């Protein structure tokens, strides 16, 4: 049986990639039609990219 730590070490990076690519797609979809919403989504995307970096560091340690 797989431990929950090992499970999340495998699953979390996949989930983060999906989250990041989804936000990137939303930014592309918004284009220049709604700059306010686009800035909001870009700030969320930036946070998720930081979380991905943190996760990479954590999994490497
Ligand atoms: Fe996050």
What does it look like?
This is Bacterioferritin. The protein is mainly α. The protein is about 85% helix and about 0% strand. The radius of gyration is 14 Å and the shape is elongated. The chain has one domain. Fe (ii) ion (FE2) binds near residues 48 and 51.
Characteristic terms for this protein:
about 60 residues, mainly alpha, 2 helices, about 85% helix, binds fe (ii) ion
Output the radius of gyration.
Answer: 14 Å
Strand content: under 5%
What is the end-to-end distance? Answer: 23 Å
> Helix fraction?
over 70%
Globular, elongated, flat, extended or rod-shaped: what is the shape?
elongated
Ions, cofactors and other ligands present here are: fe (ii) ion
Rounded average pLDDT: 93
Structural class: mainly alpha
- Biggest β-sheet, characterized? none
Give the count of structural domains: 1
Regions with pLDDT < 50 over 5+ consecutive residues? none
Order of helices and strands: HH
Q: What is the number of beta strands? A: 0
Number of discrete helical segments:
2
């Amino acid at each position: 049986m797989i431990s929950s730590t090992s499970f999340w070490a495998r699953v979390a990076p996949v989930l983060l990639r999906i989250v990041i690519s989804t936000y990137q797609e939303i930014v592309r979809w918004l284009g220049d039609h709604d700059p306010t919403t686009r800035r909001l989504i870009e700030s969320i995307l930036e946070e998720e990219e930081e979380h991905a970096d943190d996760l990479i560091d954590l999994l490497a340690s």
